[in-house]
User: What shape does this take?
Amino acid sequence: MSFFGKLKERMFRSSSKLDEGLDALVAAEPAPEAPDAPIPSPAPIVAPDGSKPGLLSRLTGRQDAPRRVLDDAFVEELEDLLVQADLGVDTALKVTANIAAGRFGRRVTTAEIKEALAAEIARIMEPVARPLPLYAKKPQVVLVVGVNGAGKTTTIGKLASQFRAAGKSVIIAAGDTFRAAAVEQLQVWGQRAGVPVMTAPEGSDPASLAFDALTRAQAEGADLLMIDTAGRLQNRADLMEELAKIVRVLRKKDPSAPHNTLLVLDATTGQNALTQVEVFRQMANVSGLIMTKLDGTARGGVLVALADRFGLPIHAIGVGEQIEDLDAFDPQDFAAALTGTESR
Ligand SMILES: Nc1nc2c(ncn2[C@@H]2O[C@H](COP(=O)(O)OP(=O)(O)OP(=O)(O)O)[C@@H](O)[C@H]2O)c(=O)[nH]1
Assistant: This one.
């Protein structure tokens, strides 16, 4: 199945929410307020090119798509709908203002609003849609950060598998040494991807494991070293110190490491993802994002808010629990899936 087909199918719940909301918005043409208020004469149905509809289309009703005047009430309802779809207040206001510009006071159809919304979303997402950059430098050190449960382990496994398929040699370091279950999970993913996973005794210093892993990666001439990290936000100071130490120690072996710091975010957390970006940016030099669990969530809109607020590259999106369920981020497809329009 094409990327768009898969995304659309899997984001069905997100798109249908916004999709249906937009349909309802246009259908909800408010009745005139007072009985003695002048009833506005219906606007002539004129095609976008200015021509009147022909007899056949008038008879078949194809020109009769519901229309609603884009007025202040419409603008407010559209803003609310976008906030509910997790675009965040600032982005929702901006997007709505852009859609209203040039259309205010006109009678619009749902299709026109959906197309305009998809175009606005794609415009915001375009600059951030960038795959993980691969450098000539070997080994390229990729530090993976994010709260527990965001999908770090799964994403590392999926990425490792894709790099392997592209002919790259990869080593994984299980840096969350405080949770035996996390280490075991990563070992399972390493096996699936066919990639060695370096571990350390439970409770040992993750920085020391990172150092050993980089030593091995350099010795073996590996292309990539991916380092998993803990995600205990409950003790922020400790986590910050832990991440800082990993970076300090890596730089003893390679002053340019880490070459990427990926923040993994869970789409189902909605607006909370914005806070996580802020927190992790204070703790680590986040260079890009991967958003997981976009399948089956109604909260995919948060990606638009993230792109608009932070402008950090979105390297990939997780659309399922299987090893192949990590896709490149395509802004046109994403906008189409979210708004229920056809991708260009
Ligand atoms: N539906 C879906 N589930 C996902 C996706 N990515 C990860 N998951 C699931 O999310 C859960 C947590 O994923 P992990 O990879 O263990 O998350 P983590 O951040 O490593 O969490 P800890 O191991 O607790 O540190 C698992 O059940 C995964 O199968 C995704 O893109 N879609």
Remarks:
- Residues 3-127 form one domain.
